[in-house]
Amino acid sequence: MTIEQLKKDVRNVPDFPKPGIQFKDITTIVANPDELRFMRDELAAMYRGKGITKVVGIESRGFILAAAAAIELGAGFVPIRKHNKLPAETIEVSYEKEYGVDIIQIHKDALSPDDVVLIHDDILATGGSMLAAVELVRKLGVNRIYVNCLIELDGLNGREFLAKHGVDVDCLMSIEVDE
Ligand code: AMP
Fold it and tell me: Least C-beta-crowded within 10 Å: which of 2, 30, 75, 131?
């Protein structure tokens, strides 16, 4: 298995969820057992030895590899979810989207300042949701934070946007946004 093979197998769905968007569909690669294992192993290898105690996944496609990598790293899994989905006491961050404002939440007791956290999502586009996730984790007092995405969309400057806010991101692969 290679990253090049994975890149070929990500399905591009034009005009979803609205005209003009080239949607990168990862269901094709997580459905393939060899590719699923490969992604889990590659992700875990990037962070082994860093003392990660919790892997935070961003709803919903971020959950898949975050949970798989957490098991591999001997860490726990923590979800960040959209507004009003988590049942216990939460803290939240709101951020601007293309249309309107989104709110994401995490359980108040999910992390503590001595945790070493890896935040994972499937796609890095503009970086807005990832920055909000970092802010949420920081609000719980955590300052050792690693940030990872499976796919970086080239051409949307998400990496530069995050860097401006002092956040480094590592991605398993990059794909042209219009590919
Ligand atoms: P952003 O906040 O702009 O970086 O957007 C990242 C979030 O939106 C991720 O959770 C992605 O799953 C989703 N997303 C944004 N653009 C795409 C795309 N072209 N294909 C698939 N998912 C996308």
Answer: 2
Instruction: Summarize pLDDT for 54-108 with one digit per residue, the tens.
Output: 999 999 999 999 999 999 999 999 999 999 999 999 999 999 987 789 999 999 9
CB atoms within 10 A of CB 39: 24
Q: Which of 153, 160, 97, 93 is nearest to 121 (CA)?
A: 153
One-letter amino acid identity for 175? I
The residue nearest atom 11 of ligand 1, judged by CA position, is: 123
Q: How far is the CA of 148 from the centre of ligand 1 (A)?
A: 14
Question: Of residues 61, 81, 152, 159, which has the active-site annotation?
Answer: 61
Domain ranges of the chain: 3-176
Verify whether residue 135 is a known catalytic residue: no
**Residue 100 structure tokens:** 């309107």
What percentage of the chain reaches a pLDDT higher than 70?
100
CATH of 3-176, one of 1.25.40.10, 3.40.50.2020, 3.40.50.1240, 3.30.1330.90: 3.40.50.2020
